[in-house]
Queue: 4 jobs
Job 1
Amino acid sequence: VEDREALRDEHLAMRAERRVAREAGREARLEGRIAFMRTRLGITDAQAPLWGAFAESLRNNRLERVAARPGPRDPDAGRPPLVERLERQQEMLAARANQLNATIETLTPLYQSFDDEQRRTADRVFRRVGNNGFAMRGQRGERNRSWRGGARREFRRDRSRGPRGSGQGFE
């Protein structure tokens, strides 16, 4: 029994370490996206205060999502009842609506300060607003769309050649 508890504690500690590393990676990706957006949009000195407020709202949204995530569950507890799961989902959606409102409040004056070229760039670069803020072109949805089309057809074509392109097929 003691060995089992020790293994469980070790496993939970390893999961906590991975969670910390994952969060650090997510934070670095967000900062990279913010830097990319600023460069790509060509934010001017006059727009810098508005940009700062917008970037800060993206950072705050991320921090709120991290804080709202439930902690590790007890593996022995089982799945929460349906009503609890729905209430949790309702809380998460309400929090997301508040985050979107904050983002809109900071993005609106920034977007109004853009010249025509910056607006076209913003509309092109930020085609999709994802669950975790702005997904830039080439992330998530864009990447998945390309898989649905050509890449899958290529895979089917290669599959007919058999294992490792041996020409034997899968029949």
Note: The first helix runs from residue 2 to 41.
Job 2
Amino acid sequence: GVVIGGGNYWRGRSNDNIDRTKADQIGMLATIMNCIYVSEIFRSQGLKTNILTPFECGSMTKLFSKDRANKYFEKGMIVLRAIELDADAILLAKAIDGIYDSDPKLNPEAKKYDTISINEVVEKKLGVIDMTASVMCMENKMPLMVFGLEEENSIVNALSGKFNGTVVTVD
């Protein structure tokens, strides 16, 4: 399974002028846009995909259920979701190559973590993923592997354990 976010399009909670519910809805639509894009990349490589969402979104997606997702997995298809599927870990491709103690774009002295616990990510409010997702990972003991998407073969390297990112542990 692949989990995709929409943070490259929308960071709604940072905008005080928009109602939280509307901001979340915009974020969900941004996520679907990324899902469609990634799905087409996979399809261009000969893979079959399905986009599952927690709400109806026209003919582009299907309503998520664990049974439906497992049925697609059995058919060898790629499914876009994670915790509900009992995945082993979340591979998180970002614009930067891992987790830092501060924003490396703003602080050239920022320190990159090779390994950090999800508890530390939450306590230090490192902003790797939104707080709700961080807490869900902590509660469900879901480790993350955070790496840079721009690095050549980054996804293949992450899948094979050869990556230069940050491992987020779930003590």
Note: The CA atoms of residues 32 and 58 lie 11 Å apart.
Job 3
Amino acid sequence: LAALMFGIAAVAVPVAADGPSVTDLSDVEVNVIESGDIVEALAVTRDIRGRASAQPRVRLPVDFEFNSAELKPEAKALLEKVGRALTAPDLETFRFSIEGHTDSIGGEAFNTNLSKRRAEVVQDYLANTGVDQMRLESIGLGEASPVDTNVTDEGRQHNRRVEIINLGTES
């Protein structure tokens, strides 16, 4: 299902019939993504009774150096936009989980550790942009949740990703 967000094509990917949907920006050029796109992707929608819907998540093209948790320059530019989004009025009261994912190249333990370090780097970077650290948590899921095949280069690229999930309001 394709969606048009602030003039960019994003893909809303249903996860489960009663679960969240994912806004997939992973194939969108970083210079095209705006803070408003991220706010819209992570905003909690409500049903006709005013109840919060499932936790929205956004899949982002956060790139790292090979086998490293070092952010590439374009990833830093994107995370500046994410930081602005997470401190915007529509999202400033919510908590977020940052999930790191890898492809299946390399050992499972290595990939889990790498994804954890990458998620922590993103969390720290967002905190440095002004997002309250108490509103953020990070987890590395390694190769456990692929979104594509690990047989092709393109599929592996899709599996190397960062997802941000809106966990709801602070308790």
Note: Helices lie at 35-42, 73-86, 108-128, 153-159.
Job 4
Amino acid sequence: PCITMVADAAEAELHFTDPDTTVGAEVDVTVNYSSSTSLQSLNATLTYDADMLRFVSGDSASGGNGTITIDGTGGGSSIDFALKFQALKEGTAKIEVSQAAGTDATGAELDDITFGSSAVTIGPGDPSLIAPEGAEGGDQCGRSGGGYRRRSVSDNERFPGRPYSGRICQG
């Protein structure tokens, strides 16, 4: 006798939150990766409108200038990835999946991943909270190219009991 086995391909979904925020504020977007089977990994590329949002940070995520890569692992049937953006101007900013691949707990590739998207609604706010372009790589004072000095030994002598070797912002 011949026995035939058919294995169903595992499916997964990428869902997003649709938050509201204001210009200048930071906003969190959650990416939820879920399946009816236990998940192991996700590699996804997301795109967003860089004129409306600035990528700040994210769980297992890197990028900027309109593109983010999520390269994460986890267990269970649902994995969340938190992404933080700063809102730059009023309107509705889309975050979309341009590609995604993942594996289940056995290491088998997921054959069908359904892509969702996020619509971040940005209302009026405080544009003065927006850091100048290029400030992401700046100093701890929020300015690019320096603007700080090391605290000296004499500073430590003036403030006994409060040793500090970090940076101090200067006017």
Note: The first helix runs from residue 153 to 158.
